[in-house]
Design a protein that fits this description.
The complex is a heterodimer of chains A (about 70) and B (about 190).
Chain A: H1 13-26, H2 30-49, E1 54-57, E2 64-67
Antiparallel strand pairs in A: 1-2
Helix pairs in contact in A: 1-2
Chain B: E1 3-9, E2 14-22, H1 25-40, H2 51-57, E3 63-70, E4 73-81, E5 96-103, E6 117-118, H3 120-134, E7 141-145, H4 150-155, E8 159-164, E9 170-175, H5 177-186
Parallel strand pairs in B: 5-7
Antiparallel strand pairs in B: 1-2, 1-6, 2-3, 3-4, 4-5, 7-9, 8-9
Classes of the chains: A mainly alpha (about 70), B alpha+beta (about 190).
């Protein structure tokens, strides 16, 4: 479970900018950001497969919006 | 993630090695066989926790489930959520959320005097801090505490934000990066 594999990754300049922005904002390395993103995507997929839905609630709690994937 | 940790055997006042492992069926069986009867007969605030159900429901990439084993018996259980909680101390930053933590009934002074082992809860918590560091969350840790456990966490210098209405008014506490660093440096985990 602790074994790690090194991979290389092609990113567009906008994707790299996004990754850099997240890395700086969250004070985590780019690798850690990508690992977290991967886990989150796996969680979403798992729950979608179960038939669950995701909602986003507006700041004033007046509206909820279903996110479609 | 597997680690060798130290806990304290009260009988002869000796530190002993324990294993901190991913939860398995064996640990859940230990809960059913050895923990449950004693907990259900007690007034402990976690006596209703169903670890087998939690283990089956919380199998997801953002949850990590651990057992602390010594003498081939489960001495402690813990569930961490590693992606969906954010710090209040350092706004917006990720932290490890300690979802559930319990030690075996024979390690609890209210149920057994003297207890068999001490520092089981501390060892689990220290491991959780280590996971926060591994994930690059700098040791940040958050939890909602059962009322009787709040004092334990406050002794560790966790900041108490008070009752959280979204969590049955349980107190929300958080460990800062600075205090996390101090705790990890006190205990050796290999």
């Amino acid at each position: 479970m602790n074994k790690k594999t090194l991979i290389s990754l092609n990113l567009s300049s906008s994707e790299l900018d996004l990754l850099t922005e997240l890395s700086e904002k969250k004070e985590m390395s780019k690798s850690a950001i990508l690992r977290q993103a991967l886990r989150m995507m796996a969680v979403l997929e798992q729950r979608i497969e179960r038939g669950e839905k995701f909602y986003v609630e507006s700041l004033d709690k007046e509206k909820s919006e279903v996110l479609l994937f | 993630m597997k680690a060798s940790v130290k806990i304290f055997r009260v009988q002869d006042q000796q530190p002993v090695n324990a294993d901190l492992l991913p939860i398995s069926d064996k640990h859940l069986a230990d809960f059913e066989t050895y923990w449950r009867p004693r907990l259900q007969a007690s007034n402990e605030q976690d006596r209703h926790w169903e670890w087998k159900k939690k283990a089956s429901v919380l199998r997801a990439p953002n949850y990590e489930l651990y057992a602390l084993e010594c003498d081939s018996i489960t001495q402690g259980l813990m569930i961490l959520e590693i992606d969906c909680h954010r710090s209040r101390l350092k706004e917006g930053k990720s932290l490890v959320y300690l979802d559930f933590l319990a030690v075996a009934p024979w390690n609890r002074p209210p149920l057994q005097q003297p207890p068999m082992y001490k520092a089981v809860g501390s060892a689990l918590l220290t491991f959780a801090i280590g996971r926060s560091i591994d994930l690059e969350y700098k040791g940040r840790l958050g939890l909602h505490s059962l009322p009787k456990a709040t004092g334990f966490y406050e002794k560790l210098k966790m900041i108490n934000f008070g009752p959280d209405a979204s969590k049955q008014d349980l107190n929300y506490l958080e460990l800062s990066e600075q205090e996390a660093f101090k705790i990890v440096n006190k205990m050796v985990i290999t």
